[in-house]
């Protein structure tokens, strides 16, 4: 049993600060085909058996965008109702989101509104798209209009993980949008986080300079800087092929605490 998600290199989210690393998350109800879409894109295969994702799977992919090679981490999680809402660390530092519904199950389309609301609470500005999956089961659905994406101003794709329709196109466009977002973040929180991280680094440098000059360090004020508290415990960790799976045991989450001077 691992005791700290931060100690699992694949899940150390600091790596997403590097220019050539992006994180793309996938949202949608259970059995809409999130994992099958990833498998279709990454392995170009489709095995119809259903195995619901257990908590979290991380798929790694190298993509070329312009002249750059970019490492893309796709985060895939179970859309099961029992989870109700997603673990906050799932959204943390995500650069794009793919929202999926099943054209054969109306409820999965209706539930997009809930997924989208939660996404925007954590990531107000990241690029997002809506994906109507399983069109192979009934091609006539492509004649219908699904207004949710239009209302929210989001790109919309009819796809099929089973026969591959539009899958590569959709993933490539989302990777490009994630990279563009990474280079020009319009998310206020991203900028605040970056400022605070730089501020913390500068402070550390000042302290070590003071040390070198034989000066004493200023006393550390507990809670006066921004701290990232990582999920405390991990129940299970398995590695297979190019993906990692793990489960969070409790609702412990990536939480940010910051006490201002006035609160001390
Ligand atoms: N006909 C058809 N079936 C599909 C397609 N994509 C997925 N399925 C089937 O839908 C079922 C669920 O697919 P998954 O990819 O496991 O669904 P998921 O969204 O990852 O589900 P959770 O992990 O439980 O959240 C499987 O039985 C797949 O075979 C598709 O494009 N066409
Ligand atoms: Mg799945």
UniProtKB/TrEMBL annotation:
Region annotation Disordered: where it falls in the sequence: 203-227
One GO term of the biological process aspect: cilium assembly
Keyword hit for Lipoprotein: no
CC annotations in GO: cilium
Signal peptide segment: none
InterPro entries in alphabetical order: P-loop_NTPase (IPR027417), Small_GTP-bd (IPR005225), Small_GTPase (IPR001806)
Molecular function terms from GO: GTP binding; GTPase activity
Keyword annotations from UniProtKB, A to Z: GTP-binding, Nucleotide-binding
Entry annotated with the keyword Lipoprotein: no
Pfam name, any one: Ras
PANTHER family with a match to the protein in the record: PTHR47978
Family designation: Belongs to the small GTPase superfamily. Rab family.
Protein name: RAB, member of RAS oncogene family-like 2
């Amino acid at each position: 049993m691992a005791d700290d998600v931060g100690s699992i290199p694949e899940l150390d989210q600091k790596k997403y600060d590097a220019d050539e690393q992006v994180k793309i998350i996938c949202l949608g109800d259970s059995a809409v085909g999130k994992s099958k879409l990833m498998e279709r894109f990454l392995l170009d295969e489709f095995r119809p058996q259903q195995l619901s994702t257990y908590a979290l799977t991380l798929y790694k992919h190298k993509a070329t965008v312009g002249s750059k090679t970019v490492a893309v981490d796709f985060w895939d999680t179970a859309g099961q109702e029992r989870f109700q809402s997603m673990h906050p660390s799932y959204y943390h530092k995500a650069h794009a989101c793919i929202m999926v519904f099943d054209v054969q199950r109306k409820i999965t389309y209706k539930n997009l509104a809930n997924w989208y609301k939660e996404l925007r609470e954590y990531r107000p500005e990241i690029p997002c798209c809506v994906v109507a999956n399983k069109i192979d089961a009934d091609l006539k659905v492509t004649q219908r209009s699904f207004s949710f994406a239009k209302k929210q101003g989001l790109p919309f794709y009819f796809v099929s993980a089973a026969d591959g329709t539009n899958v590569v196109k959709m993933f490539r466009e989302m990777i490009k949008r994630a990279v563009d977002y990474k280079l020009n973040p319009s998310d206020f929180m991203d900028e605040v986080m970056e400022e605070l991280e730089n501020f913390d680094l500068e402070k550390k440098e000042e302290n070590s300079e003071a040390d070198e000059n034989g000066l004493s360090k200023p006393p550390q004020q507990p809670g006066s800087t921004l701290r990232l508290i990582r999920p405390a415990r991990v129940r299970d960790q398995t590695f297979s092929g190019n993906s990692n799976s793990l489960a969070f045991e409790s609702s412990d989450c990536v939480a940010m605490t910051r006490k201002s001077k006035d609160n001390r």
